[in-house]
Write a sequence for this structure.
């Protein structure tokens, strides 16, 4: 996995590209599934080119088998906390990845993430939107409409950390967002895998459970192999990057965990860097 030659030119010029600006909305930290007192970075209110925008969403009314946790569904997803799937890995994963992006590129990056609620209408301020555990999401009709408009206006959506049969629950909402566009497997030659790092030789990136289980997949044998998928617009631009049967969020979250293998975090961060730079240059 090496830097592509074009990557340096892209990074040098990225600050002059037209990106969604504003970043005016107030910042708030929510209770997380695993973290409630993670240190707040000093630049949490700084206006920058890019910040890690994390999608807030309601839990699905039903969900696929999960061997690790039990969650209640009568929780207020707008307030975060345990039992709210969008807070998985939050905020440690977001802040680790933001630090890596700042070190590896010339993008002006804020250290603190931005939780984004589609009901508030502020998603248009963020050029890149990430959702975790989408095998447990359940977008409302209003959120489906807002998500599609966000993407049609030029936004880029990335989702991650869902496995095996959770695909069908993910698709219940995604089919509503894109009833007119297919989800396809990404070809190794797609520019998204070469815009900064050359990532032809990818492998399954497991969650932290690998430390205990030694397995790169989750749930059952259908959890492998990993699938890098996408939705394209009419101009051939990827508008939704779909990472199935992998856990990039954990690879960011546990980048400083000596028990979690370095090669998984190394690949997970490189994939994220490529996706962000692609989103901001295409």
């Amino acid at each position: 996995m090496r830097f592509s030659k074009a990557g340096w030119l892209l990074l040098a010029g990225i600050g002059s590209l037209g990106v969604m600006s504003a970043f005016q909305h107030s910042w708030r930290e929510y209770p997380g599934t695993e973290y409630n007192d993670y240190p707040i970075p000093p630049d949490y209110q700084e206006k920058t080119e890019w910040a890690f925008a994390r999608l807030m969403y309601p839990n699905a009314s039903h969900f696929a088998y999960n061997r690790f946790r039990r969650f209640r569904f009568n929780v207020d997803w707008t307030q975060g906390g345990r039992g709210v799937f969008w807070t998985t890995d939050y905020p440690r994963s977001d802040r680790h990845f933001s630090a890596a992006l700042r070190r590896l590129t010339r993008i002006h990056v804020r250290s603190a993430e931005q939780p984004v609620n589609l009901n508030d209408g502020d998603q248009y301020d963020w050029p890149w939107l990430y959702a975790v555990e989408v095998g447990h999401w359940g977008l409302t009709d209003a959120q489906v409409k807002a998500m599609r408009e966000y993407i049609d206006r030029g936004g880029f959506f990335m989702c991650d950390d869902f496995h095996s049969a959770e695909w069908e629950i993910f698709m219940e909402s995604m089919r509503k967002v894109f009833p007119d566009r297919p989800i396809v497997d990404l070809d190794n030659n797609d520019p998204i895998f070469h815009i900064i790092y050359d990532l032809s030789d990818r492998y399954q990136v497991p969650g932290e459970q690998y430390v205990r289980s030694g397995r790169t997949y989750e749930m059952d044998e259908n959890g492998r192999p990993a699938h890098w998928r996408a939705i394209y617009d009419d101009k051939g631009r990827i508008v939704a990057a779909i990472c199935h049967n992998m856990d990039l969020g954990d690879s960011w979250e546990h980048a400083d965990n000596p028990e979690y293998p370095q090669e998984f975090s190394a690949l997970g961060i490189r994939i994220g860097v490529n996706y962000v730079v692609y989103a901001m240059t295409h």
